[in-house]
């Protein structure tokens, strides 16, 4: 019966908090309240049921909704422009730009940076609304205390979802659920497409290059896998380009680097020029010949050809080609061997030096304008739908009035100082561990005061700290697993390859076809890492928020100051930060994770390739794969490592504890906010307060049981070892 009576009293008191608070307004504050009537009238156009004392929240959530709608307009503008100019193809590809590969790469990288900036805005806005929605009201806290439970104050809480009203849980769930697929698809809405060129390799003597006007007879001796007329036409085409000085000269090492790739997007057919006119040639790919005589010398057979091909298998000599598993990647896996012997490079020849013909230099055809930046209309439609739902949910949150939620610890302190909680009376030194028991076991007995130092990980909760470290460790191990085959085992160079490119293309994670289904699959795989990064953000945000809440709570034992509240501040009260998190932490945190989202989009990404034949400037087929950039992964891992070090160091740092350990527990705040009657009468919750021993030094015997709490009047330093209740 007593418990039911206390619960009824708590519920009744919570209903009248907003009306009773007007009695405590100082004269100047009352005048200000009267002047706010005009402002409230103007706000009703957008906030028809708004209360000026909670108007800050409505303005903030309306700003969040406005940001979400601005992002929606950006996405919609791209979608409408692309659909109007490119249609809605069933292949799932709309090109936004087509031309120079370097320009296309810069546009793609810039658009992804913009996308991740907008995504960060959505994450910040969603997090703001979600934390407010999960914040309990005074009535919900009172009911939880009456049932022997407590709720989280000042942090994004899953625990509170089991207690708060259903419509807030529904809105919270909508914001959370739309964030998951939004991050999954947003970065795949725009992607880079590179062209892969089929090409011929023509082995010629220096005389072929010097005698540019000469013609060569053709004697048919075609192998089974080469069209002899196509070869002859290619020889004549390359000779024409040679006469126009349209070929680019490359030294052997540059030629190896240029052609030793899986996807050739920069160069076309190539002349391999040799000064050695007497060495024999071992025909490994059945090279057709122009002016074919009985001799195998280069002088008598000035032109030999191989192709058309997409890979670099022709670059290896017979020894390497037969002894190594080159596969469809050609000689890419033998890059280091080829570079080390560039001065003695003998493509498609025997390994014995006395039987081979070295290449002196190359004359390569440079290809321009076969890269593009594309968007997927199907993915864009999904992103638009999710963005719209999220924006509407935020708008609904901004227009619905809830009871005054205890968003920050200042809100909770204000409420309990105004109307004390009867269930926690006599527990002024109780910490969260004291409230883990059932209500019947909440021991209302005096406790001795002790001043100590604890590690910050204990202040925020070791489970939260260890969980955060575990998430970072798993992410780092996973990232190093990706980079180690490239950087450690194979000794590849990383720095020459930029963001959003997978080097020579031989280490694609997965490969698929060019259909719409394969495109969607690679999008899901590429952006699944964005979900993990979002989880890391919320875990880091929760850790830093809990740490800042504990620091602010402890500061009231050392300084007298006004309460930091999320509603409109009154008298000595102070306005809140980005909810509980100070701007000096919240803004850098958003910026850092926004950049990390961009780095992830450039680290593991959808790789779309269009294949061009050697003679026709029309795509013959498309393919998709999952590529990764070693450089972007290394930078991302370095950033994650720095964040992990920050969290570990912060957790091991010690802090002075002069007040009960908070850990966002509502019962701890309620127990510490048991003011004197005169503090309630004068409205201490509106003034500057400090926590300490509320007994006058000369008014009581030190052997008596004292009381600690918040007051705008005198408070002293609690006495070590003295009992308080």
TrEMBL record:
Signal peptide: none annotated. The keyword Transmembrane applies. Pfam families: DUF6536. InterPro entries: DUF6536 (IPR046623). Residues 1-18 have a biased composition (Basic and acidic residues). The keyword Transmembrane helix applies. Keywords: Membrane, Transmembrane, Transmembrane helix. Residues 1-35 are annotated as: Disordered. The chain crosses the membrane at residues 59-82, 113-133, 169-186, 379-402, 465-489, 587-606, 626-653. Residues 60-209 form the DUF6536 domain. This is DUF6536 domain-containing protein. It comes from Setomelanomma holmii.
């Amino acid at each position: 019966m007593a418990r039911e009576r206390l619960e009824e009293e708590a519920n009744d008191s919570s209903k009248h908090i907003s009306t009773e608070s007007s009695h405590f307004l100082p004269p100047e504050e009352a005048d200000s309240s009267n002047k706010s009537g005009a402002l409230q009238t103007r706000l009703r156009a957008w906030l028809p049921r708004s209360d000026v004392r909670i108007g800050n929240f409505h303005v903030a959530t309306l700003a969040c909704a406005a940001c979400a709608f601005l992002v929606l307009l950006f996405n919609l503008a791209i979608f409408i422009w692309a659909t109007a100019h490119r249609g809605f193809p069933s292949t799932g590809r709309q090109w936004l730009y087509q031309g120079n590969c370097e320009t296309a790469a810069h546009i793609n990288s810039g658009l992804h940076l913009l996308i991740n900036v907008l995504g960060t805005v959505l994450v910040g806005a969603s997090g703001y609304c979600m934390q407010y929605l999960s914040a309990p009201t005074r009535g919900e806290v009172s009911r939880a205390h009456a049932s022997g439970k407590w709720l989280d104050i000042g942090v994004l809480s899953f625990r509170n979802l089991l207690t708060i009203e259903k419509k807030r849980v529904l809105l919270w769930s909508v914001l959370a659920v739309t964030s998951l697929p939004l991050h999954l698809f947003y970065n795949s809405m725009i992607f880079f497409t590179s062209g892969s060129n089929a090409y011929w390799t023509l082995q010629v003597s220096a005389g072929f290059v010097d005698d540019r006007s000469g013609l060569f007879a053709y004697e048919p001796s075609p192998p089974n896998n080469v069209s002899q007329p196509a070869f002859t036409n290619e020889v004549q085409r390359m000779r024409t380009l040679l006469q126009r000085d349209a070929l680019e000269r490359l030294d052997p090492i540059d030629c190896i680097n240029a052609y030793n790739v899986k996807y050739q997007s920069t160069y076309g057919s190539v002349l391999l020029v040799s000064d050695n006119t007497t060495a024999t040639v071992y025909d490994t790919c059945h090279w057709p010949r122009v002016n074919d005589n009985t001799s195998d010398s280069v002088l008598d057979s000035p032109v030999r050809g191989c192709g058309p091909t997409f890979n670099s298998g022709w670059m290896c000599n017979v020894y390497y080609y037969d002894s190594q598993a080159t596969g469809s990647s050609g000689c890419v896996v033998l890059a280091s061997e080829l570079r080390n012997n560039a001065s003695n490079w003998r493509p498609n020849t025997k390994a014995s030096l006395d039987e081979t013909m070295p290449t002196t230099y190359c004359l390569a055809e440079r290809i321009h304008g076969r890269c593009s930046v594309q968007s997927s209309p199907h993915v864009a439609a999904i992103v638009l739908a999710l963005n719209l739902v999220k924006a509407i949910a935020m708008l609904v949150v901004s227009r619905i009035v809830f009871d005054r939620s205890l968003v920050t610890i200042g809100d909770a302190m204000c409420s309990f100082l105004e109307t004390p909680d009867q269930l926690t009376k006599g527990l002024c030194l109780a910490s969260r561990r004291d409230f883990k028991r059932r209500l019947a076991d909440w021991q209302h007995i005096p406790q001795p005061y002790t001043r100590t130092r604890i590690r910050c990980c204990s202040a925020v909760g070791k489970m939260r700290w260890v969980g955060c470290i575990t998430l970072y460790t798993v992410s780092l191990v996973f990232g190093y697993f990706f980079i180690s085959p490239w950087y450690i085992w194979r000794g590849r160079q990383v720095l020459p390859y930029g963001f959003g490119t997978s080097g020579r293309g031989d280490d694609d994670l997965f490969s698929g076809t060019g259909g719409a289904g394969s495109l969607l699959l690679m999008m899901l795989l590429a952006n699944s890492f964005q979900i993990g990064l979002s989880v890391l953000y919320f875990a880091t945000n929760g850790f830093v928020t809990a740490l800042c809440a504990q620091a602010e709570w402890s500061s009231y034992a050392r300084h007298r100051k006004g309460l930091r509240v999320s509603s409109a501040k009154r008298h000595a009260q102070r306005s809140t930060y980005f909810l509980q998190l100070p701007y000096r932490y919240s803004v850098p945190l958003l910026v850092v994770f926004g950049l990390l989202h961009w780095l992830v989009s450039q680290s593991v990404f959808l790789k779309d390739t269009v294949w061009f034949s050697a003679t026709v400037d029309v795509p013959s087929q498309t393919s998709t794969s999952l590529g990764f950039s070693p450089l972007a992964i290394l930078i991302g891992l370095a950033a994650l490592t720095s964040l992990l070090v920050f969290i570990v160091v912060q957790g091991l740092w010690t802090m002075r504890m002069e007040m009960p350990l908070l850990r966002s527990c509502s019962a701890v705040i309620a127990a510490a906010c048991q003011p004197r009657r005169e503090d309630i009468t004068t409205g201490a919750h509106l003034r500057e307060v400090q926590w300490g021993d509320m007994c006058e030094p000369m008014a009581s015997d030190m052997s008596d049981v004292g009381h600690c709490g918040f007051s705008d009047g005198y408070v002293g330093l609690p006495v070590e070892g003295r009992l308080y209740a």
